[in-house]
């Protein structure tokens, strides 16, 4: 099973997000899952996730752009796939992933949420999208979707394609049941 971790590339965020990334990666890598990721860093959330999957001898595929300047020599265990745009990158990540796990993040993560959600709604795949709503982080995004339903821009079945989970243990349990 290929799991995409959507994570922030920022390293100055609260420590608890790094700890959650480590916990989730350790649990999922030891469950024979392979990693799809969109950023490779030695530190931060991606660094912790990459470490856990590397330590468990799992396959790691990175979908990135050359302008991000990630050095393949720094990550000999990662299969680098270069894309020409963030749109192409998002599509390849979507196509290669079975589970799309979106950690709390910024505008890049929000773009991925809506791109993945719309693709799932339109194509009707078996993929699973998990929104890690730690401390109600995505409250406004969830409210936006509810408002779109209320105003008839979406139907209620949009929530059939997104799994909103508020704690890391429940995420692990949900994925292990798949």
Strand order of the largest sheet: 4-3-2-1-5-6-7
Helix segment count? 6
Main beta sheet, described?
7 strands, parallel
Average pLDDT: 96
Strand residue content:
15-25%
Structural class: alpha/beta
Uncertain segments are none
Helix proportion of residues, in percent?
A: 40-55%
Count of individual beta strands: 7
The shape is globular
How are the elements arranged and paired?
Blueprint: E1 2-6, H1 15-29, E2 34-37, H2 44-55, E3 60-64, E4 78-82, H3 86-96, E5 99-102, H4 107-123, E6 128-132, H5 139-150, E7 163-165, H6 168-176
Parallel strand pairs: 1-2, 1-5, 2-3, 3-4, 5-6, 6-7
Overview of this protein structure:
α4 (107-123) links the parallel β5 and β6. 33% of the residues are buried. The mean pLDDT is 96. The protein has 6 helices and 7 strands; from the N terminus they run βαβαββαβαβαβα. The longest helix is centred in the middle third of the chain and has 17 residues, at 107-123. A 7-stranded parallel sheet has the order 4-3-2-1-5-6-7, sandwiched between helices. The radius of gyration is 16 Å and the shape is globular. With 178 residues, it is of the alpha/beta class. α1 packs parallel to α6 (168-176). Helices cover 43% and strands 17% of the residues.
């Amino acid at each position: 099973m290929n799991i995409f971790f959507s994570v922030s590339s920022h390293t100055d965020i609260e420590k608890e997000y790094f700890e959650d990334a480590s916990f989730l990666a350790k649990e999922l890598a030891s469950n024979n899952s392979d990693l799809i990721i969109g950023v490779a860093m030695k530190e931060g959330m991606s660094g912790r996730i990459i470490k856990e999957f590397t330590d468990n001898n799992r396959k790691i595929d990175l979908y990135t752009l050359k302008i991000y300047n990630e050095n393949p020599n720094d990550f000999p265990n990662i299969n680098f796939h270069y894309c020409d745009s963030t749109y192409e990158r998002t599509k390849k990540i979507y196509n290669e992933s079975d589970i799309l796990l979106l950690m709390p993040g910024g505008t890049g993560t929000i773009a991925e949420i809506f791109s993945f959600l719309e693709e799932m709604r339109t194509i009707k795949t078996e993929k699973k999208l998990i929104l890690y709503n730690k401390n109600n982080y995505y409250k406004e995004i969830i409210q936006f979707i509810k408002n779109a339903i209320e105003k008839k821009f979406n139907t209620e079945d949009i929530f059939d394609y997104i799994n909103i989970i508020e704690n890391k243990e429940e995420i692990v349990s949900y994925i292990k049941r798949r």
